[in-house]
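FYI - complex with FE2/S2 (inorganic) cluster, inputs then prediction.
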Amino acid sequence: MALTQEQLAAKMEELKAFIEENKNVDGPLMPIMQKAQESFGYLSIEVMTMIADALDIPVSKIYGVATFYAQFSLTPKGDNIIQVCTGTACYVKGAQAVLDKVIEELGIHSGETTADGKFTIQDTRCLGCCGLAPVMTINEDVYGRMVPGQVKGILDKYRAL
Amino acid sequence: MKTIAELYARCEAMQPKMAVRRGLAQIEKDGYRRHVLICAGTGCTSSSSLKIAAALEENLKAQGLENDVKIVKTGCFGLCAVGPIMIVYPEGTFYSQVAVEDVAEIVETHLKNDKIVTRLVYSDEHTPKVEGQSVALSDTTFYKRQHRVALRNCGFIDPECIDEYIAMDGYKALAKVLTSMTPDDVIKVVLDSGLRGRGGGGFPTGMKWSFAKKSVSEKKYVVCNADEGDPGAFMDRSVLEGDPHAVIEAMAIAGFAIGADEGYVYVRAEYPIAVRRLKLAIEQARAEGLLGKNILGTGFNFDMQVRLGAGAFVCGEETALLTSIEGNRGEPKPRPPFPAVKGLFDKPTIINNVETYANIAQIINNGAEWFASMGKDKSKGTKVFALSGRIQHTGLVEIPMGTPLREIVYGVGGGVPNGKAFKAAQMGGPSGGCIPASLIDTNIDYDSLAAIGAMIGSGGLVVMDEDNCMVDIAKFFLEFTVDESCGKCTPCRVGIRKMLDILTRITEGNGEEGDIEKLEELAYMIKTNSLCGLGQTAPNPVLSTIRYFRDEYEAHIREKRCPAGACKKLSNFYILTDKCIGCGLCAKNCPVGAIERLPKEDFPDKKLAPFTIDTSKCIKCGVCLGNCKFKAIIKK
Ligand SMILES: Cc1cc2nc3c(=O)[nH]c(=O)nc-3n(C[C@H](O)[C@H](O)[C@H](O)COP(=O)(O)O)c2cc1C
Ligand code: FES
């Protein structure tokens, strides 16, 4: 899902406008970085430099914040984001076996993206639907009461997309 | 709304509209005859409750019933495991596990022809199904023993409609405070109520407010901690999703008490529904003049905004949270100075948990004595717990402080499923400890739990049964804290990792004599030397499991055996030949071809010969166990 030059330029403009609007609020950095992460899917060096210039702070400060929080990513993510919840409720109901199966199926570890750019496995602790444990989500879709045996079938649906 | 009289009039005007939901017949001439409540909390939404609401809306329109039946999308009812949940008023019919396909039948049978759809009525081990009848939500075993204060409106009102909150006496506490109380009066009521922080620390809320009030500054802040980091806990999320105005009202009251005019709510980014509802509620309150300048014509100003977390557990710690709002890496700072003296942007700040705030308006309305009459000793009021794990009824429960654990597990929770034995309850998440089966009669309050090395924490209550290995659980929590340690101080950054290395070794069968003592020594060092609460409490799950399950640690270390059969490297999969019907599903799905059929001649009276697992080839992935419908595969 790479962006075209025009899309990229439009998103840059949008971010610039957002920064203009928010740079004078108290503590503007996090909301601006969250906006950038949301529109680009990751924080490229270009984006970080632009934020730094606009707020008149060093890029190193932005890099520091970006690497502290799990939500910010410095590399592009895959088309489909897989999260297997490893919160306590899911863990005691066997989430690890589900995660192991996803890892085995895709041949990548948590936090990595497949070579074809189709899937990223993302670490998650509690999605807030512990009643359905163990829970896996792919993008917006929620799969509750998972057993390892279901993993392949579910992944195949997204492989076919 | 510009005046308090208008607020009271609005509340009055709403009463006929809420009558149906209170079980009364329709009062207004053109009012709705029925209200259908559908849970739109995170749990039910992920089992498609919104699709059900949409299908219902469409169906009602098609039949011309849209002015007869009102659809109300509520916050969490608490019983997430049997969602999606639907309740039809005035009858109070309680439907569970509703599917989109059931909508047409509910409309035809119930909403048009006034007959209950028995098939969909909620039932459990104590409430059998009776044709044509439904148990009321409040009469189910899950609800009967609960006492709802913080969750009072959750699952009853539409959280996106400020008028429904006002109908439930919303914002009257704020009005009362602004017109007939001084800041000191407010603080005294909160102090007298005995309310203690629900975010984990249990610090007396009134005392915190009085410190902030005493700090002299032209600018102060009120902050709400909605970071809810304990994995497996979702009380705060449910309050924000189900009753956001309760938090807004309380923060304004706190602002009045300490002399602040600005508030921040710091919410976990993983809670999109809560964020959206909270933002909407703030806009509505602003539009109604309940936030902003000159609130209700009293001259009091207060406004607030929402900030999102970005996935860092340590940001639940108050000083880290405040730095994060300022736009920094969320690293904690040493206290003192406490936030009440020097907090957000270096100004005096109070920071309280969502559930703490959810109690405030009711304490103001009903009085300190009312609140203090619930609970016991130094633990007053109620506490919400997120009950999960190996338990019949997972969900949210609110009970008076001091209720015995047994009552929660067996009374409200309905016990452990599949005939397994209760082993322990883990409370307080990564900072907490476990309560073993032998102490199940312990009362759940701050002091009783502290005495046995556990804690109330923020309210996560995870039940474990005989199949859960306590060493593995301790390791699980340490993996979490290692991941989430911010790295600022060495005892936490290096010490916890060392403890995790030892635990990993033990669970993989490489434990050595003396490992338990090493763990205890490291734990002591980390607890006493870490900078913030994360490190100071991180060893707790290990210490508490060693305290109550030392024999399990020893079995791993000395016999290289996991008594619960949970540690992969120490357990094997077996097929019970008498239960195996020889269907072959396991062999078909085995990724390494480790499962083979036994010779037929050895099993003359079986139709198909059973299978067996070659443990030398087995990679212990567990696929066979997950697939077997006959419970013929075991792990031990
Ligand atoms: C590592 C760590 C994580 C915490 N996480 C939370 C949290 O998620 N939610 C919360 O309300 N308090 C959390 N706390 C407690 C807060 O520091 C603080 O005590 C609390 O927000 C005060 O509010 P209260 O007095 O109303 O409980 C955490 C503390 C520590 C040390
Ligand atoms: S622990 Fe997995 S959803 Fe809460």
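The pocket of flavin mononucleotide (ligand 1) is lined by residues B 197-201, 203, 225, 227-229, 314, 316-318, 351-353, 356, 458, 532-534 (CB under 6 Å). Chain B touches chain A through 59 residues (CB under 8 Å).
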